[in-house]
Amino acid sequence: MKKPVRALGDATRQANKKLRRERIFTIAKRQIAAKGLEEFTISELAEEAGVTTPTIHNLFGKKSDIIRELVSTLIEEMQVTTLDPPIDLIENTMFFVNNVADIYEKDIDFYRAAFKSAEYLGLFDPRIPDGLFRRAQQLAAPNKEWYKRGFLLGNIEPTIIRNKAHNSHRLARIDWVLGYIDLSQFRHQVMKSILLVYAADANPELHVLLNEEINRLNSL
After folding, report:
1. Residue 173 and residue 117: Cα distance in Å, rounded?
2. What does R_g of the chain's alpha carbons equal in angstroms?
3. Which of 41, 100, 211, 217 is buried most deeply by CB count within 10 Å?
4. Which of 39, 61, 83 represents a domain boundary (last residue)?
5. What's the CA gap between 134 and 124, in Å, rounded?
6. Ramachandran quadrant class, 40 (left: phi over 0; alpha: psi -120 to 50; beta: rest)
7. How high is the pLDDT of residue 45?
8. Residues 6 or more apart in contact with residue 50 via CB below 8 angstroms
9. What percent of the chain has pLDDT over 90?
């Protein structure tokens, strides 16, 4: 009869640990947004969270591990919000770009600080297998249905299309993180760049539509 009680106690401890971890994670996000990576310290995070520094290390690891998890969580959120997109190629691109920009807009200071920190720490190094760069890159993979329906001709390798589309997003994101453009300009820059990538492999009819949309965006 005692075993179920002990199991229940373990479950409660695990649940409490998860809640504490989530609370500390939220505090870390706020501190990074307010201070940036340079001023963010594990000791100050522990102090505000009301725990010891070893507890932070036990729950998260080093400062770079916290940044990695923050950006990884963002990528997961982007994956969720871009599920079940429109099949139309132009609408699909607008759907993706607008959803990503909407996520950034929820907490501009935090996402700017998090991405700047991740770049500084080399977390987006493309040479890291299964790293953040590779995970983010997969979000830009062209829909296989576009090839089945003849939207894209397949004259250019899908991996090249994916890499170029991802670079379009990444370069615009860096411009936004550094404050060179605002989110409205970010949306237009990513849209135009990705549509240009698709135009290189589009069928003649879609190629015309893509050019029209690119010119429309360019006039805004």
Report:
1. 13
2. 21
3. 100
4. 61
5. 8
6. beta
7. 93
8. none
9. 54
Range of the domain at 14: 1-61
Arithmetic mean of pLDDT, 11-40: 85
| Percent helix, strand and coil across the chain, each to the nearest 5 | 75, 0, 25
Extract the tokens encoding 69.
Answer: 């998890």
* Token digits of residue 1: 């009869």
Which two tokens mark 94?
A: 């607008």
Per-residue pLDDT tens digits for 92-130? 999 999 999 999 998 898 888 888 888 888 888 888 887
CATH of the domain at 29: 1.10.10
Task: Work out the average pLDDT over 79-87.
Answer: 79
What would the two tokens of residue 145 be?
A: 């249905």
- Helix ranges, 36-62 (H): 42-49, 53-59
Q: Which amino acid type is present at position 5?
A: V
pLDDT at 9: 66
Question: What's the confidence (pLDDT) of residue 72?
Answer: 83
